[in-house]
Every structure is written in C-alpha cells, then in structure tokens.
Amino acid sequence: MIDVLIIDKTDQIKSILLVPEANIASFDDEVKALNEVESKLSAVVLLNYNVMQEQTAEYIKVVLKVSSSSKIVVIADELSEEETLNCLLAGAKGYQQLDLLKDYARKLVTVMDDGEAWITRRMTATLLDALRRK
Questions:
Q1: Of 9, 41, 75, 119, which sees the most CB atoms within 10 A?
Q2: Model-level pTM greater than 0.85?
C-alpha cells in the first residue's frame, strides 16, 4: 500500500483521488498534517497550493525537514511558471493542475511512490536553467 497524505481545506483532492492501492489520509489543518508526515517513513504528499498560498514553498521546506523522504506534489487550479518553480526549488517533486488530477491520479501516485518527478518537460528545462544560474 502507498501512503498518500492529502493537505487540502476543501476536500477537492480527496473527492477526485480514487486509487485503490493507496492508504489515503486527508487533513484540512497544515499543523496536523505535518505531525502525520513526521510519523510516516515515506509518503506521497498531495498539497493544495491554496492551503498556504504564497507560503507554500516555505511549508514544503518544513515538511521535508521533518520527513526528508516525503514526495510532495503541489496541486492547484493553475500556477504560474514562477510559482511552480519556487515550489520545485523548495523540494516539491511535482505539480498537477487540479482539473486534470482525475485523469492522472493513479499514475501520479504510482510514479511518485517509485521516486520519479511529476513535471512537464518544459518545467524540467526551466528548473535546470534555474539550477545552473545558482
């Protein structure tokens, strides 16, 4: 079973995520979610950007500080390239638009659990450019 932790105040992600091979826990409070992440050895974390909005990148860093093996995917209606890049540079391993989550949920959870990234080729190029500039 794949441990999936959902951090979402609206339950939008939970209502879409139908993955039978996943043990799903959902939290509408970021502090309670953080405590749960800390208790898991490795989990796929689906984080709704709207929970923390501009502070999402900082929250990702905190999650990874308590559980470096967590695999975080940011879910949002639509993020700008800069917002997505900030989340990836903070340690997220993926980004998925909410309206397409239903189509990709099962594959997303599986590949994230396998240690892969969930970003477009274009975002991969943008991320590599940003890392080169550092």
A1: 75
A2: yes
Short-list 62, 55, 131, 46, CA closest to 95: 46
Tens of pLDDT along 8-42? 999 899 999 888 889 999 999 999 999 999 998 78
Which residue is it, tokens 């590599």?
128
How far apart, in whole angstroms, are the C-alpha atoms of residue 68 and residue 78? 26
Burial 45-63 (b: 16+ CB within 10 A, else e): bbbbbebbeeebbebbebb
